[in-house]
Design brief:
- Helix content is 33%, strand content 24%.
- It is α+β, with helices and mostly antiparallel strands and 318 residues long.
- It has one domain: 4-Layer Sandwich (Glutamine Phosphoribosylpyrophosphate, subunit 1, domain 1).
- Strands 4-3-2-6-5-1-11-12-13 form a nine-stranded mixed beta sheet. Strands 7-8-9-10 form a four-stranded antiparallel beta sheet.
- A hairpin with a 5-residue loop joins strand 12 and strand 13.
- Helix 1 runs antiparallel to helix 2, helix 2 packs antiparallel against helix 3 and helix 7 packs across helix 8.
- The longest helix is centred in the last third of the chain and has 20 residues.
- InterPro entries: Ntn_hydrolases_N, Peptidase_T2.
């Protein structure tokens, strides 16, 4: 029997990373390495405006990054939040996951750790991101618009041929966020969770709402009870979205990817949401999921036209 491997990730921006990671897994690579390299690709691409280099800045035009890494075999976790001027926060998070203590570092502490451990210091604010920030400030002043926009975390889950699993997240967070604001992405149980004996889940969307439900851990526990990843993720999103609407009058955007330890995958969402999957039996592919009026989720393969239009849109001049 051929050993199963698989990778699932949030958003179209993860496509090239998933293709890279899938090739590593296909050739017997470890899930931890495949995830780190895949996320680094997303972090390094300057046109992805919600992750890494080129990520949109906070209210003071500073790029503050959050990232997390979790190993499903040992349950080891490493995370950084509000870190500035360091390339590839996912690599810093992964290194922290090897430590027994001090595994979640923020701000100046995270930067000091990165410096002492030889990580690359780099100005993460691109000219393009700065121009986007300047335009938003002008719009806020002239049109009285809400400053907050954009919160697309790249989340990835991987299963390798040794039946080990890992999960990773990376984001620049909410555009125009308050200095020091941290969402769900680096928070265990909210933004991510993985356990070799069950599977993994990771969330993207409005972190302030996702944190209220610890949704990634919720999905993993549902899978533990026997639910398929698709059922576990969608029920978790639906039920908690309804809870938020009852308690607070409104539910923010929430999307979750999930994969169990057999390589079966699923997603849950309350908005239109793109994601990427590559497995032993499926070539790396981008999908578009859309909630329907009857409560079901329509999932279709992204067309070549969509992929071309997406690339043109993100690279369009400002």
């Amino acid at each position: 029997m051929r050993k199963q491997w698989g990778m699932i990730a949030t958003w179209r921006m993860a496509s090239e990373g998933v293709t890279l990671g899938s090739e590593m897994l296909k050739n017997g690579g470890k899930c931890q390495d495949a995830l780190e390299e895949a996320v680094k690709f997303v972090e390094d691409y300057p046109f992805y405006k919600s992750v890494g280099y080129g990520g949109l800045p906070n209210e003071e035009c500073e790029v503050e990054l959050d990232a997390a890494f979790m190993d499903g075999k040992t349950l080891s976790i490493g995370a950084v939040a509000s870190i500035k001027d360091f390339k590839n926060p996912i690599s810093i998070a992964r290194k922290l996951s090897a430590d027994r203590y001090n595994i979640f570092l923020v701000g100046a502490g995270a930067e000091s750790y990165a410096h002492k451990n030889g990580f690359v210091r780099q100005n993460m604010l691109t000219e393009r991101a700065k121009k986007t920030w300047e335009l938003r400030v002008k719009e806020i002043q002239e049109k009285n618009l809400s400053p907050y926009d954009g919160h697309d975390t790249v989340c990835m889950i991987a299963l390798d041929k040794d039946e080990d699993m890992a999960v990773a997240t990376s984001t620049s967070g909410l555009f125009m966020k308050k200095k020091g604001r941290v969402g769900d992405s680096p928070v265990s149980g909210s933004g991510f969770y993985v356990d070799n004996e069950i599977g993994g889940a990771a969330a993207t969307g409005l972190g302030e709402d996702i944190m209220k439900g610890c949704l990634s851990y919720e999905v993993v526990q549902r899978m533990k009870k026997g639910e398929h990843p698709m059922e576990a993720a969608q029920k978790a999103v639906d039920e908690f979205s309804e809870t938020l609407r009852k308690r607070r009058g409104k539910a923010g955007e929430i999307s979750i990817v999930a994969m169990n330890n057999r390589g079966e995958w699923g997603i849950g969402t309350n908005v239109e949401f793109t994601f990427c999957v590559g497995t032993e039996t499926e070539k790396p592919q981008v999908y578009i999921s859309t909630p329907q009026e009857n409560g079901e989720i329509k999932i279709e393969v992204a067309s070549e036209e969509y992929m071309k239009a997406y690339k043109e849109r993100i690279q369009r001049g400002i």
